[in-house]
Amino acid sequence: MTYPHAEAARPYLFNDRTLEDYRAAMAAGTGRVADRIRRADRPFSGVSPERLAPEIAAIDLERPLHDHAAALDELERVYLRDAVYFHHPRYLAHLNCPVVIPALLGEAVLSAVNSSLDTWDQSAGGTLIERRLIEWTAGRIGFGPAADGVFTSGGSQSNLHALLLAREEARAGASLARLRVITSEAGHFSVRKAANLLGLGPDAVVTVETDADRRMRPAALARELDRCRRAGLVVMAVVATAGTTDFGSIDPLPEIASLCETAGVWLHVDAAYGCGLLVSRRRRHLLDGVERADSVTVDFHKSFFQPVSSSAVLVRDGATLRHAAHHADYLNPRRMAERGIPNQVDKSLQTTRRFDALKLWLTLRVMGPDAVGELFDEVVDRAAASYALVAADPRFEVVTRSPLSTLVFRYVPPEGPGRKLADDANLYAREALAASGEAVVAGTTVDGRHYLKFTLLNPETTLDDIAHVLDLLAGHAQRYVDDLVPLADPR
Ligand SMILES: Cc1ncc(COP(=O)(O)O)c(C=O)c1O
Question: Of all residues in the chain, what percent carry a pLDDT higher than 70?
Answer without folding.
Answer: 98
